[in-house]
Amino acid sequence: MSQKQIALACSVCGSRNYTVAANPNRTTRLEVKKYCKHCNKHTIHRETR
Question: What is the value of pTM for the model shown?
């Protein structure tokens, strides 16, 4: 059985660079500081639905 995947989108350019496994127990959207290859810097990436 495969896990459901969600995308992480850059808050600056909106590019969806990363995917992570969905967690049904999480009530708020995940926010992680990650590297964006389009912006060429570390930015906040937010969970998209």
Answer: 0.84
